[in-house]
Specification:
By secondary structure, this protein is of the alpha+beta class. The chain is 55% helix and 23% strand. It has a single domain (17-91), classed as Ribosomal protein L7/L12, C-terminal domain/Adaptor protein ClpS (Ribosomal Protein L30, Chain: A). It has helices at residues 3-15, 31-41, 47-60, 70-82, and strands at 18-24, 62-69, 86-91.
Length: 93
């Protein structure tokens, strides 16, 4: 691997830092509703994936929904919040 390739990769990472979208457990929304909102909010998310995320949030208090660039993470987080779910974003390590 040439040094040019390594430099290009590290530059690409600096241009688009990644963020984690987290779903937090709440005592207000039904499990079915949370699954439906996740599938509606995140393109391509299957029902089994949404169920896994909902169950992790239910059991552990929070769950990773998706890791993506900041602009998308903010959009997903706001979409979840506007549907009544509790969500935050944080930089991915």
């Amino acid at each position: 691997m040439s040094t040019e390739t390594i430099e290009q990769r590290s530059t690409a990472r600096k241009l688009a830092p990644r963020y984690r979208v987290l779903l937090h457990n709440d005592d207000y929304n039904s499990m079915e509703y949370v699954v439906q909102v996740l599938m509606k909010t995140v393109p391509g998310m299957s029902q089994p994936q949404a169920i896994d995320i909902m169950m992790e949030a239910h059991n552990a208090g929070k769950a990773l929904v998706i890791t993506c660039v900041q602009e998308h993470a903010e959009f997903y987080c706001e979409s979840l919040k506007s549907s009544g779910l509790s969500s935050t974003i944080e930089p991915a390590e």
